[in-house]
Specification:
With about 350 residues, this protein is α/β, with parallel strands linked by helices. The chain has 15 helices and eleven strands. Bound molecules: flavin mononucleotide.
Length: about 350
């Protein structure tokens, strides 16, 4: 795997800027918050860290010290990508300008989210049904900022890669600096395997970097995606919550051992309670620890045990008692928990 490590540690130019690693944290609503990012960073940084998606309409007026999602620590600022969702090019451009003025690494445009609350408004993956608008958003955002402009998108609404390939070229022409491609159709909520061969189609269609995304779990699957698709790098979502050290491990900066799960969970509890009110903290923690539970053979039974109780002290006790005895790690993470 040393060639994978060398590849992942090779800098990648993204428009006017460069990332120092070709493996990045994918955006995840409810999971990619400031506390989780800090835990990930402590184990070894990815090339960039995606924040939770932000409503473009809200971004210009957000207060980074009180916002639920538009918040960060100064130490991560230049490695942060803020993903925005919306449908009005001008609104998206204003949000991008605010993101740039804050000194964040770049802006990512959400064209992948398929939940009905987003798609019913014509945002997220719904934009793939309206290519003119999608391209116009990229062009208008591009004109508004000099920082990297990125698009994260899916296959579209049917199984062919034709739309994705066509859109990728048009996004490039409109000025996008990087594409993250998740080869699943929009209504598919991660239950069927992603079609990596479609990443190859997108990679071959454009000359800007394309990050492959979907079901990278470890060094072997990461190497396979890079090898099979020719992608410029890899975006990892759920496994970064299940194993927050995955970036450090892939880059050769951290070697996990049997204490890593307990250690990461206790760090996560500390960070969440540091950044959020006790009421919010408990909800945020319960969501994240589901992904940690997915690592274990009886993960579905461990999760209720890990989340029993209502306060920080109890969560710490649960984590020490349950993870301290080193439960058996499953050969592949529990897919049911990971798709929840
Ligand atoms: C809980 C959750 C929330 C997500 N939220 C977003 C989002 O806000 N924007 C987005 O582009 N993708 C979102 N995704 C999709 C991920 O970025 C990623 O494309 C998907 O999980 C596949 O990658 P993985 O197999 O590495 O997890 C989300 C995924 C999960 C599990």
């Amino acid at each position: 795997m040393s060639s994978l490590r060398t590849f992942l540690n090779t800098p990648l130019a993204v428009g006017s800027r460069t990332i120092d690693a070709r493996v990045v944290l994918a955006p995840m609503a409810g999971l990619g918050h400031v506390a989780m990012r800090q835990v990930i960073a402590d184990f070894g940084l990815p090339g960039f860290l995606s924040m939770e998606m932000c409503n473009a309409r809200a971004v210009p007026g957000e207060n980074r010290h009180t916002s639920a999602v538009f918040r960060w620590q100064d130490t991560e600022q230049d490695r942060l990508v803020c993903q925005i969702f919306g449908g009005d090019p001008q609104v998206m451009a204003l949000a991008a300008a605010r993101i740039e003025s804050e000194g964040l690494f770049g802006v990512d445009i959400n064209m992948g989210c398929s939940v009905s609350a987003i798609c019913s408004k014509g945002y997220g993956a719904a934009l793939l049904r309206d290519p003119e608008r999608a391209v116009n958003i990229v062009r208008t955002v591009r004109r508004a900022v000099r920082c990297p402009v990125m698009v994260k998108f899916r296959t579209g609404w049917d199984n062919s890669s034709a739309l994705a390939v066509d859109l990728a070229k048009r996004f490039e022409d409109a000025g996008a600096d990087l594409l993250t491609f998740h080869p699943r159709v929009a209504p598919d909520r991660r239950s069927r395997p992603p079609r990596w061969e479609q990443i190859t189609d997108v990679v071959q269609a454009v000359s800007i970097p394309v990050l492959g995304n979907g079901d990278v779990r470890d060094a072997a699957s990461c190497a396979r995606m890079v090898h099979e698709t020719g992608c410029a790098g890899v975006a990892i979502g759920r496994m970064a919550i299940a194993r927050p050290w995955i970036f450090g491990e892939l880059r050769g900066l951290y070697v996990p051992d049997e204490s890593s799960f307990e250690q990461a969970t206790l760090q996560l509890i500390a960070r969440i309670w540091e950044h959020f009110s006790p009421e919010r903290a408990i909800k945020i923690y319960k969501k994240a620890v589901l992904y940690i539970a997915a690592n274990f053979v009886f993960g579905h039974a461990l999760w209720p045990e890990l989340t029993r109780g209502h306060d920080r002290l109890r969560m710490e006790e649960n984590a020490r008692r349950i993870l301290g005895v080193r439960p058996q790690v499953a050969s592949t993470p529990n897919a049911f928990l990971l798709t929840s």
